[in-house]
Amino acid sequence: MPLTRRQVYRRRRIAVFGGTLVLLAGLSYLPLTLLAPVAELEPAVTTPEVAPGTAVQLAMPAGAASAISAVGREGTLAQAGSADALPMASITKIITALTVLDAHPLGADEVGPSVTMTAADVALYRRLDSGGASVAPVKSGVVYTERELLEIMLIDSAGNYAITIGNWAFGSQDALVAAMRSWLDAHGFPGINVVEPTGQDARNTATAADLVRLGEAALANPALAQIVAITKIDIHDVGKLENSNKLLGEGGVDGIKTGTLNAFGANLLFSADLTVGDAQIPLVGVVLGAATHAELNAGVRSLLAQVTAGYRVVPLIAAGDAVAEYATPWDTTADAVAASAASLVVWSDTPITATVTAQSIHLADRGTEVGSVTFTAGTQTVTVPLDLAEDVEDPGPGWRLGHPEIIFGMR
């Protein structure tokens, strides 16, 4: 039966309307598919691993007690002998110096106030000299700066100048000793005891561990660090003084103080700067109760050589090493690679860990920074940026039109 005019008209309307809908859908589909942003790409991370080193066992110098540490590194590298407080001898003068400098600070290049020697200082010199103490000559009326008094006390280990500078700074020897004890308490040295400022009294005692920390405090004072590194000096009215620390300038040694008590033995609080690769490693160590200073010095030389060998330069990552990968749904990949090489100088078998941070990306150009890798060894850290090694480009219209379910996140 032929269609009526009304039916033909209705079918034409349906066809036109349906075609319009298809056209509109197509017009919407094309730009949505072609212009929609691709989903974020998540990185697949491969965390670098650094092989541990071999544990180093140090042969410590002979003596009643010894210890050595790297400044800034928690704990000691090694410790041997007694953990008890032992006689410090003239290492005491470092505490005297720190206490005086706490009350009368000196900058690295400052000389400080002038101090005039008196008849009392001359009498003190004669009294200590007659008792066999380590002293330096003094004349009434001669004027020294604070720095010169410290230099005579520390370089020549002059006990009379330790008392003289204390009398100037605090008014009396008793007041100086009280100030020294207060300084020790304030700075957390429970293992150190002082009864007088020169070290002549064997009751001035300290543990090896606390003396290492004392050495670090001495190096942290700019004026004191300069003075303890002086090998020779000529001071007016005293003459040429030569440091009793014969290791100065040898193997990086740059301080700090010797000590000797006949009834106990030879002591040395020492510091050294070791060069390992491009790094400077500041060390502080102590030996108490060695038989002689010659034996002590030989032991310290050996110890420093061992410590130098115990540090190692560890390559962490090379420039261009891949740490993460971005894989696209359109079957391309781009690596996140180290932007530069990195290494660390580490002690012995100190473990090294790595932490990777890599961000999600859409499309990105080669060289775009997308994260970082941080290596940690003890208190040391080094961070290396991660850059894209390849472009992450749009997949193009062909892939987009053929994969709408991926474009619109339906799978």
TrEMBL record:
<keyword id="KW-0121">Carboxypeptidase</keyword>
<keyword id="KW-0645">Protease</keyword>
<protein>
    <submittedName>
        <fullName>D-alanyl-D-alanine carboxypeptidase</fullName>
    </submittedName>
</protein>
<dbReference type="GO" id="GO:0006508">
    <property type="term" value="P:proteolysis"/>
</dbReference>
<keyword id="KW-0378">Hydrolase</keyword>
<dbReference type="InterPro" id="IPR012338">
    <property type="entry name" value="Beta-lactam/transpept-like"/>
</dbReference>
<dbReference type="GO" id="GO:0009002">
    <property type="term" value="F:serine-type D-Ala-D-Ala carboxypeptidase activity"/>
</dbReference>
<dbReference type="InterPro" id="IPR001967">
    <property type="entry name" value="Peptidase_S11_N"/>
</dbReference>
<feature type="domain" description="Peptidase S11 D-alanyl-D-alanine carboxypeptidase A N-terminal">
    <location>
        <begin position="78"/>
        <end position="291"/>
    </location>
</feature>
<dbReference type="Pfam" id="PF00768">
    <property type="entry name" value="Peptidase_S11"/>
</dbReference>
